[in-house]
Amino acid sequence: MPPLETVSEASLILAASAWGETAREDKKLGHDIYTYFLLEAFAKGDRNNDGAVTASEAHDFAREQTYYFTQGRQRPHAESDILGVDPIVLAGAKTRLGRPELFAYSPRLENVEVQVDGAEKGKLPGGVSLEPGAHRLTLLASDGARLYDDDIELTPGERMDLAALVHPAASPFFLQVRGGAQVFVDSHTRNNLIAPVPLIGIEFGLPEKPFSFTDLRADIGVVLAEAMANSSKPTAA
Fold first, then answer.
1. I need a labelling partner for 157 at 20 to 30 A (CA). Which of 36, 53, 97, 133 fits?
2. Residue 112 contacts residue 142 (beta carbons within 8 Å)
């Protein structure tokens, strides 16, 4: 069978700064700051020690270095959709199974703190590599809420998407039947114009479509015909 990276798919958008921020330059570095550290990552960014520096590894290296170099004034940003492993190799070649990795690039996990065995390993988005074996993983929101706190078992070469732990994969669709009644609060309208009308409806939806933070829904409601016929009354003289 071919190596997994040859059949993986990935789409990545790498940005030197977050929305509304300035991508800064520094004369001493001879580049804009993010580009300088992105190029440096080609030699230093092999996070999982598998022999290759992938695009996501290089960006995470440059993001962290840029953040500290600018004292938090510039925060590089990435959006990615990776199926399998990251197949975009920028330097080197994958010659061995690397250390297992934890990662997440979901906007919903922005600034979530990653703790492993009680020690802070950084904040999301991004990734960290660990030694294979059993670990205690804790994910803390910016307000201190525990989004995840449980034991995990990692194997060499494994990549664990933390977004799937916090937000389990949604069902591809949902279908539900609803019932109710349309009732006017105003007694004059209710008694002289439109009586309470029973309703029945069917709702169909696609979670997290077309974006991860939206749901696409279609709703069909039906007024029961017999009740509709009896709902209209002549206005009292």
1. 36
2. yes
- How high is the mean pLDDT of the chain? 81
Of 86, 67, 62, 51, the residue nearest 161 (C-alpha):
86
CA-based R_g, the chain, Å:
27
What pLDDT was estimated at residue 174?
Answer: 66
**How many whole angstroms separate alpha carbon 103 and alpha carbon 124?**
8
Rounding to the nearest 10 degrees, give the CA dihedral for residues 146, 151, 157, 158.
-60
Gap between the Cα atoms of 231 and 194, Å rounded: 5
Model pTM score? 0.60
- pLDDT given for residue 49 in this prediction: 92
Q: State the amino acid at position 39 in one-letter form.
A: L
Q: Which of 43, 47, 67 is nearest to 56 (CA)?
A: 47
Helix axes 55-69, 33-44, angle to 10 degrees: 130
The encoded tokens of residue 129 equal 């590599």
Of 53, 54, 70, nearest in space to 16 by CA: 70
The C-alpha angle 54, 76, 211, rounded to 5 degrees, equals 85
Tell me which residues of the chain have a pLDDT lower than 70. 1-8, 82-85, 168-174, 182-185, 207-208, 210-215, 223-237
Residue 153, strand partner residues: 134
Cα separation of 149 and 152, whole Å?
A: 10
**Strand, coil or helix: 44:** helix
In the block, tokens 């798919």 appear at 9
